[in-house]
């Protein structure tokens, strides 16, 4: 079964007036993984889709959803998958790809059938991102050894982290979808500092590897009009193009950034000094 929900885009002037509950209702994706289902959120920000496939007792098949008005999910879309659990299998039009922990798979436009299932006794958690596509590119698996790895930050500022570029244009041909994974080094809590905005792209942040009973505060909003949302493990938050996107946890964690929009230039961002935030 494939479930879906719909989210509208929002003007920053309106968001300034939101209560905590309203902010969470519009931007937080609280439940990514549902047993033996695919759970998706469709947002009007660049028509991005984020969600998860969670095959526990049976395989699950990616089905089209009403918002797409297409026979197959990927008729006019591309798909990125990162497995944040144990080893599992993804079958794309009959070809089987085994994905280990923190491995990725790009699936191009035009593929008809995508099936997710367990591989042995391990439990996979398949995190999904999708964006509209204008051209069919080949399906490609990306392991961590294939990733572009960048070390960022400094323990002095509690933001030492390892950034793994997985589905990016230097590794995989895509139309607009970009995905990567940032791992906070133990003892570090801040991600994406100094913060930035990029008016040509939106993002979704998915948080995992968070210790039980710990939490993450995700900061969003215009640089001089910020808000925060507290998240738990395996939750995601939508980040509009006008918003910063940064977070701090009560322990270290990992997060996946997925983005789509006007270009594929990872460095296309408008940085904001930390002492200028309000």
Automatic annotation (TrEMBL):
Record keywords, A-Z: Isomerase, Metal-binding, Zinc
Pathway this chain belongs to: Glycan metabolism; pectin degradation; 2-dehydro-3-deoxy-D-gluconate from pectin: step 4/5
Alphabetized InterPro entries for the sequence: KduI, KduI/IolB_isomerase, KduI_N, RmlC-like_jellyroll, RmlC_Cupin_sf
Sequence positions that bind Zn(2+): 196, 198, 203, 245
Superkingdom per UniProt: Bacteria
Example of a GO MF term: 4-deoxy-L-threo-5-hexosulose-uronate ketol-isomerase activity
Cofactor: Zn(2+)
Enzyme class: isomerase
Matching Pfam families: KduI
EC number: 5.3.1.17
Catalytic activity: 5-dehydro-4-deoxy-D-glucuronate = 3-deoxy-D-glycero-2,5-hexodiulosonate
Membership in a protein family: Belongs to the KduI family.
Protein name: 4-deoxy-L-threo-5-hexosulose-uronate ketol-isomerase
Species of the source: Autumnicola lenta
Gene: kduI
